[in-house]
Amino acid sequence: MGCTQGKCCLPRPPGRGSGGGRGRGGATLGRAEVPGAGLLLEYATLDVAGLYPDSPGRESQDAHLVATRFAGDPDLHLFAVFDGHGAAGTACAGFARDALPRLLAAAAGAGSLAADPAAAFREAMLGANAEMHAAAGVDDFMSGTTAVAALVAGGALHVANVGDSRAVAGVWRAGRVVAEDLSWDQTPFRADERARVKACGARVMSVEQVEGMRDPESEGWVPDEGDPPRVWARDGLYPGTAFTRSLGDLAAEAVGVIAEPEVKSVEITPAHLFFVVASDGVFEFLSSQEVVDMINSSILAIAYRGLQNRKVAMYQDPRDACSAIAAESYKLWLEHENRTDDITIIIVHIRDSEISGPAGSDKVDCGSIGASIAAHTVQSEIPVFVPPEASHLNRCAATEMQSSSSGSPTERSLSCVVPSPTHPLLIHGRISDASKPMRSEQAASQVQPWHQVDGGTELERPMQ
Fold first, then answer.
1. Where would I find the PPM-type phosphatase domain in this sequence (predicted)?
2. Taking a C-beta distance cutoff of 8 angstroms, is the pair 34, 45 a contact?
3. Using one digit for the tens of pLDDT, what is the confidence trace for 178-188?
4. Is residue 293 assigned to a domain?
5. Rounded distance, CA 53 to CA 50, Å?
6. Which residues contact 54 (CB under 8 A, 6 or more apart)?
7. What sign does the dihedral 367-292-268-113 (CA atoms) show?
8. Rounded CA gap, 217 and 407, in Å?
9. Which of 134, 105, 83, 452 lies closest to 242, judged by CA?
């Protein structure tokens, strides 16, 4: 869902997108150690170009980034997705993909990323937005990109979001895996965001309301049914964005579409099994819980009693989950419309480096999952584990998990460090020193050059 000016402009079948043809359905696979927290991340990425019958040669407007050992620090790992829209959406997404890690790396070198991750993300995204406006080669007047970035920093996870792409964690709670939203879609469906843009002079209406087919004063929009509410200038039929925050979109800034992110920080507990970062091509017709259920269907976590109740949990390659989610999203798009959006997904399994299974394989029931790390801090002295050679990932039958809705932002456990200024229920707080990203003495202050991989950007080094 984007603007009326061109994001929804359509699919090659899954596997023929820009995923590069490696692995399952074009998905790529990687691993990264987090020595300061004794964790091992195994991640997969997949991007599938949308199907646009009226524009068969149209390139994908999505971009993604994986930067392991970010800024030379073995405990920092960055995963991000950018969803471009408008005539110059591809250029906008690519520009943001290159600018954001550079600006964050500068913050890491200056120490501000470790001292205040939320403030560093805010400055980096606002800086990328300003640079995009000034870039001679990018016309962002009626084009832009959403951005969602997840930074693993030792035993903490920091997620910054601008727009309607999304990050979600799968956590073990009360005997099942449930979705914990790590970001909140910033769209006119949200009353606080709707009020904010209206205060800037915007009109909020669906296309049908603009065309006089429905009462323009009605706010009875229903998600996933019909055209969504959009942001319009008071005196013109533009920009028509279905989101209230983005990078770029210079014309939309005049009516309150801003580049300031909302940032959520959580402690990575033993119950956190994985997280996913994806464009709204995935979440347009799939809920957070449905996506988590599909990822979990590729995991068989087996708990044994005795021997400290921690045994190996076997699970399939995360590329399988990427391919399954992309295929289901693609199918649902074609059931609802005659096109599909671009689909980009990153799945990151979180494993204890000292055992072969994921971090939650002991199935502990953490009632405080999602609580603010300002209250539940990461241990300041975590032993460093060097993982053995990668164990073989066995294929197992998946246990069936009951699905449920993750709820609205006001129903979720709120641990937002930097919430929307107008959101009344989000908790303001500062991260305790023990929760801040741990810096290695050997961490380089300069970010290494990025290299392009399959339409995204990846920076990887061998594990220690």
1. 45-350
2. no
3. 999 999 999 99
4. yes
5. 10
6. 9, 10
7. negative
8. 26
9. 83
